[in-house]
Amino acid sequence: MEEKRESLRTRVLKTGSISFGGAAISCTVRNISATGALLEVESPLGIPERFILVVPTDQISRPCRTIWKSERRIGVRFGRPRDASEALSGKAP
User: Fold this and answer.
1) Residue 35, SS3?
2) CA dist list (Å): 18 to 2, 6, 43, 55, 76
3) Exposed, middle or buried: residue 89 (CB in 10 Å: 0-12, 13-18, 19+)?
4) 57 and 75 in contact (C-beta within 8 Å)?
5) Which member of 27, 28, 86, 90 has the lowest number of beta carbons within 10 Å of its beta carbon?
6) Does the reported pTM lie above 0.70?
7) What structural domains does the chain harbor?
8) What is the pLDDT of residue 93?
């Protein structure tokens, strides 16, 4: 299988949260790169396409766009900082 990512992902196991519209859902960051991450959640139901990923241990707060979802995992691409207001509201542009 050919790797299509722009940057190499690093395996991690960190606690994070998916923040949107005044709500937050716990997640586990399974891998991360400069351009995106793989998140594990109890269920992706109700998680909007755009949100903020917060990883307190690394002082990370990044706007994200969902690229794909499975039963318990979400692949995201990091957005630009100006996308943060859209992600916080939980609304797509």
Assistant:
1) coil
2) 29, 23, 12, 9, 11
3) middle
4) no
5) 28
6) yes
7) 10-89 (2.40.10.220)
8) 46
